[in-house]
Amino acid sequence: MVGMTSKLLSFSFCLSHIGDLHYTGIRGTKTNQEHRRRIQELSNTLSTTFTPHLLTTLTSNSTILLSLHILSLDGSLLSALINASTLALIDAGIPMPSYICACTAGSTSSYSSNDEKADPLLDLNLGEEQELPFLTVATAGEGDGDGVVALVMETRVQAGRLEGMLAVGVDGCKQVREILDGVIRSRGKKMLGGAMA
Protein backbone atom coordinates (compact mmCIF):
# COMPACT_ATOMS: atom_id res chain seq x y z
CA MET A 1 0.00 0.00 0.00
CA VAL A 2 1.46 3.32 -1.10
CA GLY A 3 -0.11 6.68 -0.43
CA MET A 4 0.01 10.43 -0.23
CA THR A 5 -0.88 12.47 2.82
CA SER A 6 -1.93 16.11 2.87
CA LYS A 7 -3.40 18.20 5.65
CA LEU A 8 -7.01 17.27 4.89
CA LEU A 9 -7.17 14.49 2.33
CA SER A 10 -5.10 11.32 2.14
CA PHE A 11 -5.14 8.72 -0.63
CA SER A 12 -3.65 5.24 -0.54
CA PHE A 13 -3.57 2.66 -3.28
CA CYS A 14 -3.59 -1.09 -2.93
CA LEU A 15 -2.58 -2.89 -6.11
CA SER A 16 -3.72 -6.47 -6.34
CA HIS A 17 -1.25 -7.30 -9.13
CA ILE A 18 1.92 -5.25 -8.74
CA GLY A 19 3.30 -6.80 -11.93
CA ASP A 20 0.49 -5.13 -13.90
CA LEU A 21 1.51 -1.66 -12.75
CA HIS A 22 3.19 -0.94 -16.08
CA TYR A 23 -0.29 -0.45 -17.50
CA THR A 24 -0.64 2.79 -15.52
CA GLY A 25 1.58 4.58 -17.99
CA ILE A 26 5.16 3.62 -17.17
CA ARG A 27 6.94 2.18 -20.19
CA GLY A 28 10.34 0.58 -20.42
CA THR A 29 12.21 -0.84 -17.45
CA LYS A 30 10.07 -0.81 -14.35
CA THR A 31 11.78 0.01 -11.11
CA ASN A 32 10.22 0.38 -7.71
CA GLN A 33 11.07 4.09 -7.80
CA GLU A 34 9.17 4.54 -11.09
CA HIS A 35 6.14 2.75 -9.63
CA ARG A 36 6.20 4.97 -6.56
CA ARG A 37 6.56 8.10 -8.68
CA ARG A 38 3.55 7.14 -10.84
CA ILE A 39 1.45 6.41 -7.75
CA GLN A 40 2.55 9.74 -6.27
CA GLU A 41 1.43 11.50 -9.47
CA LEU A 42 -2.00 9.85 -9.24
CA SER A 43 -2.26 10.77 -5.55
CA ASN A 44 -1.35 14.39 -6.21
CA THR A 45 -3.87 14.64 -9.05
CA LEU A 46 -6.64 13.21 -6.86
CA SER A 47 -5.72 15.45 -3.94
CA THR A 48 -5.61 18.64 -6.02
CA THR A 49 -8.91 17.68 -7.66
CA PHE A 50 -10.87 16.97 -4.48
CA THR A 51 -9.36 19.17 -1.76
CA PRO A 52 -10.70 22.53 -3.03
CA HIS A 53 -14.10 20.98 -3.81
CA LEU A 54 -14.87 19.57 -0.36
CA LEU A 55 -16.81 21.64 2.16
CA THR A 56 -14.30 21.36 4.99
CA THR A 57 -15.79 23.71 7.58
CA LEU A 58 -17.45 20.78 9.34
CA THR A 59 -14.34 18.59 9.21
CA SER A 60 -11.62 21.20 9.73
CA ASN A 61 -9.65 19.16 12.29
CA SER A 62 -10.08 15.82 10.54
CA THR A 63 -8.17 13.89 7.94
CA ILE A 64 -10.10 12.01 5.29
CA LEU A 65 -8.40 8.78 4.20
CA LEU A 66 -9.47 7.15 0.96
CA SER A 67 -8.06 3.71 0.28
CA LEU A 68 -8.52 2.75 -3.36
CA HIS A 69 -7.99 -0.87 -4.40
CA ILE A 70 -7.02 -1.33 -8.03
CA LEU A 71 -8.22 -4.78 -9.02
CA SER A 72 -7.73 -4.50 -12.77
CA LEU A 73 -5.79 -2.09 -14.94
CA ASP A 74 -7.87 -2.06 -18.08
CA GLY A 75 -7.63 1.58 -19.15
CA SER A 76 -9.10 4.88 -17.94
CA LEU A 77 -7.39 4.44 -14.57
CA LEU A 78 -7.48 8.08 -13.45
CA SER A 79 -11.14 8.56 -14.34
CA ALA A 80 -12.03 5.33 -12.51
CA LEU A 81 -10.12 6.53 -9.43
CA ILE A 82 -11.87 9.92 -9.50
CA ASN A 83 -15.34 8.36 -9.88
CA ALA A 84 -14.63 5.81 -7.13
CA SER A 85 -13.39 8.59 -4.84
CA THR A 86 -16.55 10.60 -5.48
CA LEU A 87 -18.75 7.64 -4.56
CA ALA A 88 -16.67 6.90 -1.45
CA LEU A 89 -16.87 10.50 -0.24
CA ILE A 90 -20.63 10.61 -0.81
CA ASP A 91 -21.10 7.28 0.97
CA ALA A 92 -19.05 8.57 3.92
CA GLY A 93 -21.23 11.67 4.13
CA ILE A 94 -18.48 14.16 3.31
CA PRO A 95 -20.22 17.37 2.14
CA MET A 96 -19.57 18.50 -1.44
CA PRO A 97 -21.49 21.08 -3.47
CA SER A 98 -21.77 18.64 -6.42
CA TYR A 99 -20.35 15.42 -7.80
CA ILE A 100 -16.96 15.29 -9.45
CA CYS A 101 -17.21 12.98 -12.45
CA ALA A 102 -14.41 11.99 -14.80
CA CYS A 103 -14.11 10.46 -18.24
CA THR A 104 -11.34 9.65 -20.70
CA ALA A 105 -11.50 10.88 -24.29
CA GLY A 106 -9.15 10.26 -27.18
CA SER A 107 -8.67 10.81 -30.88
CA THR A 108 -8.64 8.15 -33.61
CA SER A 109 -5.63 9.82 -35.19
CA SER A 110 -2.08 9.76 -33.85
CA TYR A 111 -0.07 12.97 -33.41
CA SER A 112 2.03 12.48 -36.52
CA SER A 113 -0.80 11.68 -38.92
CA ASN A 114 -2.62 14.54 -40.57
CA ASP A 115 -6.00 12.82 -40.74
CA GLU A 116 -8.72 15.46 -41.06
CA LYS A 117 -11.50 12.94 -40.38
CA ALA A 118 -10.23 11.86 -36.96
CA ASP A 119 -13.15 11.19 -34.63
CA PRO A 120 -12.99 11.68 -30.86
CA LEU A 121 -13.48 8.56 -28.74
CA LEU A 122 -14.99 8.22 -25.28
CA ASP A 123 -13.90 5.90 -22.44
CA LEU A 124 -10.78 4.37 -23.94
CA ASN A 125 -9.55 0.92 -22.99
CA LEU A 126 -5.92 0.02 -22.33
CA GLY A 127 -5.03 -0.84 -25.91
CA GLU A 128 -6.48 2.40 -27.21
CA GLU A 129 -4.65 4.42 -24.54
CA GLN A 130 -1.35 2.87 -25.56
CA GLU A 131 -1.86 3.65 -29.26
CA LEU A 132 -3.85 6.90 -29.41
CA PRO A 133 -3.60 10.36 -27.87
CA PHE A 134 -6.00 10.76 -24.94
CA LEU A 135 -6.93 12.99 -22.04
CA THR A 136 -8.80 12.60 -18.77
CA VAL A 137 -11.24 15.35 -17.83
CA ALA A 138 -13.11 15.77 -14.54
CA THR A 139 -16.05 18.13 -14.13
CA ALA A 140 -18.09 19.40 -11.21
CA GLY A 141 -21.52 20.99 -11.31
CA GLU A 142 -24.71 20.21 -13.14
CA GLY A 143 -26.31 21.33 -16.38
CA ASP A 144 -24.74 24.31 -18.08
CA GLY A 145 -22.74 25.08 -14.94
CA ASP A 146 -20.26 22.27 -15.58
CA GLY A 147 -16.77 23.35 -14.68
CA VAL A 148 -13.57 21.48 -15.49
CA VAL A 149 -11.78 20.76 -12.21
CA ALA A 150 -9.07 18.49 -13.62
CA LEU A 151 -7.59 17.95 -17.05
CA VAL A 152 -4.70 15.52 -17.49
CA MET A 153 -3.09 14.78 -20.84
CA GLU A 154 0.08 12.72 -21.01
CA THR A 155 0.26 12.29 -24.79
CA ARG A 156 0.77 14.72 -27.63
CA VAL A 157 -2.11 15.72 -29.87
CA GLN A 158 -2.57 18.32 -32.58
CA ALA A 159 -4.16 21.50 -31.23
CA GLY A 160 -7.08 21.24 -33.65
CA ARG A 161 -8.17 17.93 -32.14
CA LEU A 162 -7.98 19.05 -28.51
CA GLU A 163 -11.25 20.98 -28.52
CA GLY A 164 -13.20 18.02 -29.93
CA MET A 165 -11.65 15.62 -27.43
CA LEU A 166 -12.45 17.98 -24.55
CA ALA A 167 -16.06 18.45 -25.71
CA VAL A 168 -16.58 14.68 -25.93
CA GLY A 169 -14.96 14.23 -22.51
CA VAL A 170 -17.23 16.83 -20.88
CA ASP A 171 -20.30 15.20 -22.49
CA GLY A 172 -19.08 11.85 -21.17
CA CYS A 173 -18.81 13.35 -17.68
CA LYS A 174 -22.47 14.41 -17.93
CA GLN A 175 -23.43 10.82 -18.78
CA VAL A 176 -21.34 9.48 -15.90
CA ARG A 177 -23.01 12.01 -13.57
CA GLU A 178 -26.46 10.70 -14.59
CA ILE A 179 -25.37 7.12 -13.85
CA LEU A 180 -23.83 8.08 -10.49
CA ASP A 181 -26.95 10.07 -9.59
CA GLY A 182 -29.16 7.04 -10.26
CA VAL A 183 -26.93 4.76 -8.17
CA ILE A 184 -26.74 7.24 -5.29
CA ARG A 185 -30.50 7.83 -5.26
CA SER A 186 -31.31 4.11 -5.28
CA ARG A 187 -28.80 3.48 -2.48
CA GLY A 188 -30.27 6.37 -0.49
CA LYS A 189 -33.79 4.98 -0.91
CA LYS A 190 -32.62 1.56 0.33
CA MET A 191 -30.93 3.14 3.34
CA LEU A 192 -33.99 5.24 4.17
CA GLY A 193 -36.28 2.25 3.65
CA GLY A 194 -34.19 0.19 6.08
CA ALA A 195 -34.21 2.99 8.65
CA MET A 196 -37.99 3.36 8.46
CA ALA A 197 -38.64 -0.35 9.00
UniProtKB/TrEMBL annotation:
It comes from the Eukaryota. GO terms for biological process: nuclear mRNA surveillance; poly(A)-dependent snoRNA 3'-end processing; rRNA catabolic process; U4 snRNA 3'-end processing. Residues 31-95 form the Exoribonuclease phosphorolytic domain. It holds the Pfam family RNase_PH. GO terms for cellular component: cytoplasmic exosome (RNase complex); nuclear exosome (RNase complex); nucleolus. SUPFAM superfamilies: Ribonuclease PH domain 2-like, Ribosomal protein S5 domain 2-like. GO terms for molecular function: RNA binding. Belongs to the RNase PH family. This is Exoribonuclease phosphorolytic domain-containing protein. The lineage of its organism: Eukaryota, Fungi, Dikarya, Ascomycota, Pezizomycotina.
